[in-house]
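Sequence, structure tokens reproduced for reference:
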Amino acid sequence: MMDQYLKLGKKIDSLTARTPWNNTFHDIVRELYSSEEADVVAGMPYTLSPLDRISRVTGIDELRLQRILEGLCRKGLVMDIWNEKEARYYYLPSPLAVGIFEFTMMRTGENLNSKQWAKMFHDYFEAFFPANFSHDEKVSIMRVIPVEETVAPENHIEFYDYEKISSIIDGTDTYAIGLCSCRNEKHLLDEKRCDAPLDGCSSFGLGADYMIRNDLARQVSKTEMLENFARSREHGLVFCAWNTQKKTMAVCHCCKCCCNYLAGMNKFGFTNSVITSSFLSAIDTTLCTGCGTCVEVCPVNAIGLVSANDHAHPKRKVARVDPNLCIGCGVCASKCPKQGLSMVKRGQRVIHPETLFETTVLATLERGTLQNQIFDNPQSLTHEFMRTFLGAFLRLPPVKKALMSDVLRSSFLSFMKVGATLQGKKWMTEL
């Protein structure tokens, strides 16, 4: 019989983020999940499902199952989303990121093995990033949002609401702030090198509801949320939101020394670990004094000092941006003492998925797990056969390339939405 934790590991690896099995990951799941919880998560559907369906699939009576699921939600190992129309919760196994890692390291209270968890996650990311970004993947769960004030006025006509922190805040009435999982992890390991506060991670709408309900973050007012972002701008933090245009559920406040997604670029060399904004840092060399402030604050080492080629002042240097590395965060422009930088349009607009449904479809297609989102019952032999058949088809390089292309992507997503609607899951396509 397969080890129950190995079975759980295979389940988590089949979600939106790949989690290759190794001894460290084995230690993580054994530490975080009881044997009962491991069996439940391994056996429940891959996609959002109500209590009665999970009960049918797992064979566990609803009262006992609800108790187990509520405990898993409080630990961040399962996510629950309230369906207003049906007046009931839907449950989803948490992927490693965004999910198990973040929620685990955001937990507070006594008698938590937080330092041990931090060490295990830190070690595991050596395997996580190559598994998810080493094949030129185009979809990440995180996207960069520029500092609003740094976008050049002539570009405001193409500065959409979903790219503005102010619009994200104005677009909801529920807010929560919790620990930054990455900074807390580095703090516990004595590797935090910045003066950025440990808290700040921001969630909105359904995301905030989940965090508040499960004591993973505290509810705050709109004013407190605005102050939180103002504080982060002062600290030169990068704003990374969930990679959706609609119903943005969370925004991270990331620093260069702690953020694991930025480490995907800085430490592991995967420039696709975070999706850039549609803007790019531009330097006005007539204003640049070569002070090096932008070089120091750039979170991805995209700026350097080069000769100004000024014959009158041969030692003069100016800043230069590497457009292949710039993520379009605007931190450099916000900190330039001479206002010599601004954010301008990239040559080609970066297309971000409209909804979490689209992000999930595209991410799982790239990572070879889309079939689990379609045939989501792990206990059904028919679903198992269809997962195997469809998975083999979708993994064919020409098929994957075609479906991810600009020509077919929109049609493919429309087809997936129709399929979800026919299954009674239309509300999920709107998340």
The chain has four domains: 1-94, 97-279+331-352, 280-330, 356-429.
